[in-house]
Structure formats: structure tokens, C-alpha cells
Amino acid sequence: MSAFAVVNCSELVTLAGPARPRVHNEMRELGVIRDGVIVVRDGIITNVGPRREIELPTEIVDAEGKVVMPGFVDAHTHPVFAGNRADEFEKRSSGATYREISAAGGGIRSTVRKTRAATEDELFAAASRYTQWFLRGGTTTIEAKSGYGLNLDAELKLLRVISRMGPIRAIPTFLGAHEIPDEYRGRREDYINLVIHEMLPAARKLAEYCDIFCEPHVFPVEAARRILRAAKEHGFKLRMHVDQLHNSGGAELAAELGAVTADHLECTGAAGIEAMRDARVQPVLLPGSVYALGSKRYPDARAMIEAGLAVVLATDFNPGSSPTPSMQMILSLASTQMKMTPAESITAATINAAYSLERGVEIGSLEPGKRADFAIHDCTDHRELAYFFGVPSAQSVYIGGSRVA
Ligand code: NIG
Ligand code: FE
Is the CB of 244 under 6 A from ligand 1? Predict the structure, then answer.
């Protein structure tokens, strides 16, 4: 039996609290213990508290007076793809828009072409590089979507890569309805039938959630409803990209279908927020994609918190709209652009994110019985995580009690 204690934490940010997602003012309560200690046995946290109250095992990890907190839980990423889109980024820097580039055959479809041409091992090698980026940023769990294959074999190839990812915890989501691939242009109905009848049954063996890009020019509400109802019949739980570029009622659809999360929500209004609250849909806000697309339209995080929604923050890591794996960058954007306090942002990036992946009893906080997924950050005050930007602060990162970065 292996046991160790982490001692000498200026702040032990526990996120201890009720065993459910945090809302309203609870999002500001981080359960900080000054000079706190955690004891870990066989990968599980067995004791947490102030140093004077805790009996220490012989093996000690000295946090050197720094902040210790749960690993970030990044509840929305697209980490499996070939190549990148630096060429399109350059075009956008000269004024082209994301929509124009995608209408001309670029965007998601350009990544699909490269990803189809790559072998599973090549994709795994690329994903492993990004895994290191996540870990070095203090992220210990990601939700990972397919969606750059868009045919049966290629989607399954992506899901197999996700199943091989480690030591990070990767939770698989099937996103076959991410775009209409080249060979189905002008034949959306045929592609929807392919997704429903061939992809969903096969993907179910490898994915827990089903997602969709619900947007009038890709999968409008009516098409999304059909695909996601079929997904539910196959036993998928739902996460959805909604209201990113238009308010087309995507948040209301997420509520109607009982989705676990509705993600993006840049254009969602009061009716959508109310519907999500009534149906207990968790909003996953992705300010990295607003920033990287050069938009100013951030989701209305304050209205969502005031309505009592259990807000989540995530990177949306992908090669197009949000090429960042950094949860710290997301905390910075949340505070500067969406007026979330550093404490609210940390809650949204840990315990609320864990609940949005239905793993709130295992991860997302430092409490006895939970997995020892945590990071030691090179700062003395948790607010510094959102305040300094462009400086990764994670110094050592542990998953299940083992040091991984
Ligand atoms: O969440 N909006 C759809 N999907 C991604 C972008 C994917 C891409 O551009 O490759 C998003 O922003
Ligand atoms: Fe996304």
C-alpha cells in the first residue's frame, strides 16, 4: 500500500462542498485551507485538513508554500485531428471570416480531409503531444470528441485514438454530426441517415456522449432533434454545440431533449437560459473560441449564474476556432471578458465541470474518497491563476496519486 501526504500548501483549494454542482454564491466558495495537507493512499484521497490536525505518513511531498488544487476538468475538447489550420488563421488575421473560410471548403472540412488520410497511429502521436500540453497546464481530465472523420471508419478511428489516450482521463463523445462532409454536400438528408443508421449504433461501443453542431447552416434544430432522439434511443447521453453563431433555439432544444450540457451559447437569450434552468442543463462556456475568432460576443455568464445555472468553463481545444489547451487562459478570459470572479471560474473549471461529465463524486474536488488528481501551482494565492496570463503555472501534476507532469 503506497501512501504520501502533500504538505506546506499556502492554499489548499479543496472545492469541498455539497455533492452536486455549485450554483449562485456557492461558486465563490472554494473551501480554501491555509497550510493544508492532503493524504493519499493507493491513488485515493484519504484525509484533508489543516496540518496540525492530520497524522502524516512517512512519505512527504513538499508543496513549498504554493497553491494546491484539483486538476482542471476540461469538459469540451476536440483533441484528435491531423495537421493544423495556421494557414486559415493567417487569412483570418487579414480579415477573412470563419464562415467564409468554411463556405469555401475550408474550416472543419479541411481538417477532415487531413484526418481521414492519417493512420490511427499518426493521430495517436498527434493526440499524445496535445495530451502533454493539457497535463502541463494542470488539466487531468478531458472530454474528447470525434468529429473530424465524418464517415463510419474514420469516426471509429478517432474514437479508438481517444480510448488509447493517457495518462490523462479522456471521456469519449461521438460528434459525427459536426459538419456535412464533402461527398454529401447538397445531400444533408443522406448524411443524416448515415449518421443515424450506421454511425450511431457502431459509435455507441466507444463513446458515452453524442454531440452535434446545431447551427442553421450545418444541422438546424429540426435535423438536430432527429439525430439526437436516435442517439438517445441508442443509450447516448447528450452534449450539444448550440447558439454559437446564431440564436436558433439550440438551448431550448437541449432542454427539451434533456441534454447533460449545452455548449457555446454565445447568442443565447433569456428564454434559452430559463429553459436550461428548468431542465437542469449545464452550460459549458468556451470563451477561447470567441477570443480566437476575434469576436466580441461572449456568452452571458453573469445572467446564467444569476439564474442559478451550474456554469462550466472549457477550452474547446480544436484546430479552428480555439487552438488552446490552456484552462488558465480560459480563467483569464472568464474574468476579463465575462466578469466571472477567479473563484467562480475555478469552480466552473473543476467541480462543476466534473458534474457535467457525471463524475462529480470521483473528481473535481479534494475530499476524502476522491481520486488524487491535483496540481501544485507556482503561486501563493488562487486568484493569481486567472490574473497572470500567458504564464503556465502548474508545476507538478498528479493523476490517481502518480506524478504525470
Ligand atoms: O466548437 N463549432 C463547431 N466545432 C468547433 C470548431 C471546430 C473547428 O473549427 O475545427 C467549435 O468551435
Ligand atoms: Fe467545440
Answer: yes
